[in-house]
Amino acid sequence: xxxxxxxxxxxxxxxxxxxxxxxxxxxxxxxxxxxxxxxxxxxxxxxxxxxxxxxxxxxxxxxxxxxxxxxxxxxxxxxxxxxxxxxxxxx
Length: 91
Description:
Blueprint: H1 22-36, E1 44-50, E2 53-60, H2 63-74, E3 81-88
Parallel strand pairs: 2-3
Antiparallel strand pairs: 1-2
């Protein structure tokens, strides 16, 4: 038997509602932008950010979608560089 456990209405201070680092904020911001884009929403894209450098890895259905994901990363404020390692699903 399982018992549900719920958070209290006021979360304790050790739980943060937002990322605490600039890299984390950039990754979340880019993820949100990709989720709003109907072309990128269902692609298998992993987003990693290190020292304001976005690393995109995974697979996309077309090369154009990979290029669009990279362009979206470049247009994200605060991003200094983008390493686009996305591969076509069939290639």
